[in-house]
Specification:
mainly alpha, ABC transporter involved in vitamin B12 uptake, BtuC, 2 strands, about 75% helix, globular
Length: about 325
């Protein structure tokens, strides 16, 4: 690792630590109240969902509409474990058990469905998501059916949100930079050419699907532990579309774009609460305007890097010889 890479890594760590400390301090001083903390939790959960779906859709090129199903697996698994073991170790076990269960189902579903492409894959993953939702709806003795699970112990706070959100972004960004990630990108660009070069496209599509499902399970577990109530309606088709909107708005193939879009939409939704009657109309109009003027998304396929700050500095800094 060169000196420049080391300095960039040090700056990123400092920025992350500063973000964590500042927000934790604002929470301690009650500047960020309970309502804003709930909004912040929603944003972090959406970042995890969007970044994990971007791995499947943006980087591997597989059009999936089943992310809400994997989220529901994580939510119900964590909720059932923490209801029976309402302790911090129980919560941690519940989060990872939910993630592993979601990844396992993702692998089982992915093997047959990922041989499909385009709209056919979208329909297959949507059907899978609805099957999962219906199963939870009809398991009355375990999931309480349509009434859902209530009084789920709340363990999620800013510390856990920061750890899991940062961990998700780091793991997926490092995966994309690895040889496996480059193989996934090659499948997206031209699957036939990738196969001709010896890349097993089905294998890498399933790997991306499993990793995306794993982190969707983590997002679902955090959701259950944040809002202490879940029911099957929460994880319907509209939830998958909400996550897809974040990915498309941020830019397919851009992790930075998914983060920025999740934060932006979270803030917009918060401010539109004052216009409850026409909230969805205004929300839709804003999305349409953004997509008309920026159809490739806010970031396209680009990422935010520290070099952008040096470029801004060179623009702001006055040139010598000028008044």
């Amino acid at each position: 690792m060169g000196n420049k890479a080391k300095s960039n890594l040090a700056i990123k760590i400092i920025l992350l630590a500063a973000t964590f400390v500042i927000i934790q301090l604002l929470i301690f001083l009650d500047v960020i109240n309970d309502y804003l903390q709930a909004t912040m939790a929603t944003i972090c959960i959406n970042i995890i969902l969007a970044v994990s779906l971007n791995l499947i859709t943006g980087f591997t090129g597989q059009f999936s509409l089943g992310h809400a199903g994997f989220m529901s697996i994580g939510a119900y698994t964590c909720a059932l474990i923490t209801l029976r073991n309402p302790t911090l170790p129980g919560f941690i076990i519940g989060v990872f058990a939910g993630a592993v269960m979601a990844a396992l189902i993702g692998g089982i579903v992915g093997l047959p469905t990922l041989r499909l492409r385009g709209d056919y894959l979208a329909i297959a993953t949507l059907g899978m998501s609805e099957i999962i939702r219906i199963v939870f709806l009809n398991l009355d003795s375990i999931t309480n059916g349509a009434a859902g699970l209530q009084d789920i112990p709340q363990f999620t706070n800013w510390i856990w949100l920061f750890i899991f959100t940062t961990g998700t972004v780091l793991v997926i960004s490092n995966f994309i930079k690895s040889s496996h990630g480059r193989a996934c990108i090659s499948v997206r660009e031209d699957e036939i050419a990738a196969e001709a070069m010896g890349i097993n496209s089905t294998r890498y599509k399933v790997i991306a699907f499993i990793i995306g499902s794993f982190f969707a399970g983590i997002a679902g577990a955090l959701y259950a532990s944040t809002f202490n109530f879940i029911d099957p309606k929460i994880f319907g088709f509209s939830k998958s579309i909400d996550v897809l909107v974040v990915v498309v708005l941020g830019g397919l193939g851009s992790i930075s774009g998914s983060i920025i879009a999740a934060v932006l939409l979270g803030i917009i939704t918060t401010y539109l609460q004052a216009f409850a009657n026409i909230q969805m109309i205004l929300y839709s109009v804003l999305l349409i305007i953004i997509m008309i003027f920026r159809p490739q998304g806010l970031m396209g396929s680009k990422e935010v890097s520290l070099s952008i700050f040096s470029k801004l500095g060179s623009i702001i800094k006055p040139k010598k010889g000028r008044a």
